[in-house]
Write a structure and sequence with these properties.
Radius of gyration: 25 Å
Number of strands: 11
Shape: globular
Bound molecules: pyridoxal-5'-phosphate
Distance between the termini: 71 Å
Strand order of the largest sheet: 1-7-6-5-4-2-3
Largest sheet: 7 strands, mixed
CATH topology of the largest domain: Aspartate Aminotransferase, domain 2
Length: about 500
């Protein structure tokens, strides 16, 4: 090190190697023993607080090696391990190991991917990542876009682009001051909560959301969509956006996307698809038909940190005509000197979304896409779906389980004690209580992690497999765990 300034932040080359190798050793150990650990120890916030301690802000420094080993211990031994093969909760994947190395590399070089001049290679890599993601899900590689922190941000980013595209020309200057207060939007009842945040965040208010009823298959009812749009137009409202869902968060249902696309054409509305969870499944040849219409969307949100197994955080907004992002997000303050915006060669991501300084989250996605390849993803995603189908079938076969739904890689089911007559009100009330308590027991038990869904008013256990470590054996064991704990809980509740 040529630098002769001594600072407390610097780590000598020898020291860095030593503690770096140590860390890599413990990461490798972790990755190869995760299946032997409990998914969670179920420690309470109070217990966690005690383990962490409540020291005040450190006045002086701690040696890096001590810090690394203590921190590894805290995290490896007191975390909920979503890399565990029996973690099937919410929609969080086991993270691809290459992502951990990619993040190390990204943090080392630390490109600011807000401006091309600050991140020449990283900007090019992000651009390629966006193009590959478009190819992955089977839409034109001419879609442009940006990597963001996750599904919510990906949807927000598209929402505002839709608003800019469909609002009166002067909206960016006038805001809601003039006539645009009557702008309304449409989505199915199953749409994720981001839509409410967006309506509030961008000033439309939650009443601007038209929650369209679902049909018998839990897809948005497109007939109701049409009649609702027509009623709004008649009443002087200004429809601007329809949101279709490609894999709803509770049960994995994909809306009739090509039907929605046709409706958007007729009424000149922006068609956004929330594919945060499900869009990657469009890569499976057998499922192509289910995703018909994806390629017609004006914008698509997807979430590499879900079914592309990227470590948190990575989301992506794709826009058919990326100029809409620039129209929405570009501004040129005097203190920026990031080159000629008309020059195609200088792509500045600060003009594509909300963030200014931006990290290099594209790298872990880009590296995983190459390490795994499209065919590797096709087999992993297919296997996740097959395991979810197995989960459903095993539940269906079992006399004490009721299989409720199965779509993409999400299965919902519930525990029903032997001889229980379902359907009458008292029985249903009891089953809802029983299954909610059962979920709580399972979630802290550490053997398996499931989440819940309410389906047709039934409180269900829900398993979502975006987990390349889950195997058939895990599914069989999970079935046995649910039944064992269900029985025990039922007996306990009967004794009271
Ligand atoms: C997960 C999910 C979101 C939110 O994504 P985050 O990455 O959690 O912000 C939005 N929509 C759908 C359909 C999802 O599955």
């Amino acid at each position: 090190m040529k630098n002769n300034r001594l600072t407390p932040v610097e780590i000598s080359k020898e020291e860095f190697k030593k503690i770096g190798y140590q860390l890599i050793d413990s990461v490798a150990d972790y990755l190869h023993t995760v299946h032997d650990k409990p998914v969670t120890k179920g420690e309470s916030p109070k217990e966690i607080q005690t383990i962490l301690g409540n020291a005040t802000l450190p006045e002086s420094g701690t040696p890096a090696n001590e810090l690394i080993s203590r921190t590894s211990d805290l995290l490896f031994n007191h975390s909920l391990l979503n890399g565990h093969p029996k973690f099937l909760g919410y929609i969080t994947s086991s993270p691809a190991p290459i992502g951990a190395l990619a993040d190390l590399l990204a943090a080392t070089v630390n490109p600011n991917v807000g401006a091309n001049i600050l991140s020449p290679m990283a900007t090019a890599i992000e651009k390629q990542t966006v193009k590959w993601l478009a190819e992955f899900i089977g839409v034109s590689p001419n879609y442009g876009g940006i990597l963001v922190s996750g599904g919510n941000m990906a949807n927000f980013t598209a929402f505002l682009a839709a608003r800019t595209a469909k609002a009166p020309k002067a909206f960016k200057e006038d805001g809601f001051g003039n006539t645009s207060g009557d702008m309304v939007l449409y989505c199915s009842k199953t749409t994720h909560t981001w839509i409410e945040k967006a309506a509030v965040l961008f000033g439309h208010g939650s009443k601007s959301i038209r929650w369209i009823a679902t049909d018998a298959n839990n897809k948005m009812n497109n007939e109701v969509l049409i009649s609702t749009i027509e009623a709004d137009v008649k009443n002087g409202k200004k429809p601007f956006l329809v949101v279709g869902t490609a894999g709803d968060v509770s049960t994995g249902v994909v809306d009739n996307l090509s039907g929605i696309a046709a409706i958007c054409k007729i009424y000149d509305l922006w068609f956004h698809i929330d594919g945060a969870y499900g869009a990657p499944a469009a890569v499976i040849p057998k499922l192509k038909k289910l995703f018909d219409g994806l390629e017609e969307a004006d914008s698509i949100a997807l979430d590499p940190h879900k079914w592309l197994y990227s470590p948190l955080e990575a989301g992506c907004t794709l826009v058919k005509n990326p100029q809409h992002l620039i129209d929405t997000y570009s501004s040129h303050p005097v203190y920026y000197n990031f080159g000629d915006a008309d020059n195609e060669s200088s792509l500045n991501y600060y003009e594509y979304g909300f963030q200014n300084s931006r990290g290099f989250r594209a790298l872990k996605v880009w590296m995983a896409l190459q390490q795994i390849g499209k065919s590797g993803y096709v087999s992993m995603i297919s296997e996740d779906i097959e395991l979810s189908e197995l989960f459903y079938q095993e539940a269906e076969k079992h006399p004490e389980l009721e299989a409720v739904t199965q779509n993409l890689s999400i299965t919902t089911l519930r525990y029903v004690p032997v001889g229980y007559a379902t359907g009458n009100n008292n029985a249903e009330t009891y089953l809802n209580i029983l299954n909610e308590k059962l979920l709580n027991v399972l979630q802290v038990g550490g053997e398996v992690f499931l989440s819940n869904a309410i389906v047709f008013e039934k409180y269900c256990l829900r398993g979502c497999i975006v987990n390349f470590r889950t195997s058939k054996k895990d599914i069989e064991e999970i079935i046995a765990i649910i039944v064992r704990e269900g029985r025990q809980l039922h007996h306990k509740l009967q004794e009271k």
